[in-house]
């Protein structure tokens, strides 16, 4: 099986006995779980609810009577409340300018999945992997989410995996893309995923198709997911608008125009997709039909954020 996992909520405290590269877990601590960013390193401090006072008799009765009001993590009435809480806290820290980074975070957490040995996937392990070269710049996006996590944890602890999955969906939505419902209950890994699982930007389409196949994704799904590059600064239209301009611009191949003005548009891996017949057919479909792109992106995003996830059982 894949990486070791730990449940969210109070059992997150048990993770405090582990030490993993990049994360120092300090136990016990007096405050709610927080992550302190020191450069690219993360420090997780976990708190346990205080034990009852040692006195017995009337004071103990008062303690029992008030304990339910003082419990740090009152449970929410329903999963609808839970998702609303996450969305509210994420929207407090999310701006259109931060959306691209948050969406990229999703792929870099989930995209490590390997169907062969069932390692990787959407498990929050990205918090241990920030010093990998392919994750350059993502500490900033995680830092943005840390604030939202604090707000959610104060009501009910949330896993990084759930938080990142919902944040990516909110990022798409705030930029005008499809609304994507996200199931909750993912359990975080306690160790980093195996290294070298994300595709490199220099790959040809055939290699990219193979890599995505090993993660359980078809060519159509690879092309739909790659449409995420419509956000960000690679030249596919407005950097903060989620639409189908990625596909329209890919078909125009601006990088091939003389003059070099558009030579910076797209990554080599984006340009490679349009040269592959099978990918090109999907690129053309999505360029001509934004609704189809939105529908397929919604479906493949859902698949991505469930990929390799371990789910809590209560
Ligand atoms: C298909 C293989 C992929 C490769 C090789 C790849 C590689 C890259 C690279 C090299 C960057 C530029 C990072 C930088 O600016 O320094 C980037 C940006 C980005 N990637 Fe990907 N990516 C891939 C797929 C995906 C997928 C599936 C998603 C999300 C579902 C995604 C989301 C993004 C986003 C949103 C950005 C813009 C980030 C920003 O401007 O802050 N990528 N990607």
Layout of strands and helices, then pairs:
Layout: E1 5-6, E2 23-29, E3 34-38, E4 41-47, H1 58-70, H2 79-93, H3 96-110, H4 138-153, H5 160-174, E5 188-189, H6 205-214, H7 219-226, H8 245-252, H9 268-274, H10 277-288, H11 290-306
Parallel strand pairs: 2-4
Antiparallel strand pairs: 1-5, 3-4
How would you portray this structure in words?
This protein is mainly alpha-helical. It is 43% helix and 7% strand. It is built from eleven helices and five strands. The chain has helices spanning 58-70, 79-93, 96-110, 138-153, 160-174, 205-214, 219-226, 245-252, 268-274, 277-288, 290-306; strands at 5-6, 23-29, 34-38, 41-47, 188-189. The protein has a three-stranded mixed beta sheet. A two-stranded antiparallel sheet has the order 1-5. The protein is globular and about 55 Å long. It starts with a strand and ends in an 8-residue tail after the last helix. The model is unreliable at 1-74 (pLDDT under 50). Bound molecules: protoporphyrin IX containing FE. Residues 100-101, 103-104, 106-107, 137, 199, 201, 208, 225-226, 228-229, 231-233, 267, 269 line the site of protoporphyrin IX containing FE. The site of protoporphyrin IX containing FE (HEM) has 19 residues, from helix 3 and helix 7.
Features:
single chain, 314 residues, mainly alpha, three-stranded mixed sheet, two-stranded antiparallel sheet, 11 helices, globular, disordered N terminus, binds protoporphyrin IX containing FE
């Amino acid at each position: 099986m894949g990486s070791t996992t730990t449940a969210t909520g109070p059992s997150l405290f048990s993770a405090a006995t582990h030490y993993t590269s990049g994360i120092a877990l300090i136990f016990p601590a007096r405050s709610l779980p927080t992550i302190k960013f020191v450069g690219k390193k993360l420090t997780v401090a976990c708190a346990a609810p205080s034990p009852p006072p040692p006195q017995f008799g009337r004071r103990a009765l008062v303690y029992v009577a008030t304990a339910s009001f003082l419990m740090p993590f009152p449970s929410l009435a329903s999963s609808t409340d839970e998702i609303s809480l996450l969305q509210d806290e994420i929207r407090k820290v999310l701006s259109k300018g931060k959306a691209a980074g948050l969406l990229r975070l999703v792929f870099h957490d989930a995209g490590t999945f390997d169907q062969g040995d069932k390692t990787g996937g959407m498990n929050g392990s990205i918090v241990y992997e920030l010093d990998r070269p392919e994750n350059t710049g993502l500490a900033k996006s995680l830092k943005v989410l840390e604030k939202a996590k604090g707000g959610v944890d104060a009501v009910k602890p949330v896993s990084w995996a759930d938080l990142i999955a919902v944040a990516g969906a909110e990022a798409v939505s705030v930029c005008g893309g499809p609304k994507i419902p996200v199931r909750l209950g993912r359990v975080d890994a306690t160790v980093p995923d195996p290294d070298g699982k994300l595709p490199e930007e220099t790959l040809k389409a055939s290699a990219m198709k193979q890599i995505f196949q090993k993660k359980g994704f078809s060519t159509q799904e690879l092309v739909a997911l790659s449409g995420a590059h419509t956000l960000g600064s690679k030249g596919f239209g407005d950097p903060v608008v989620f639409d189908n301009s990625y596909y329209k611009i890919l078909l125009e191949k601006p990088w091939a125009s003389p003059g070099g003005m558009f030579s910076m548009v797209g990554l080599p891996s984006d340009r490679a997709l349009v040269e592959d017949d099978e990918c090109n057919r999907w690129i053309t479909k999505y360029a001509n039909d934004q609704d189809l792109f939105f529908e397929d992106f919604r479906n493949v995003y859902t698949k991505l954020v469930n990929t390799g996830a371990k789910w809590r059982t209560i």
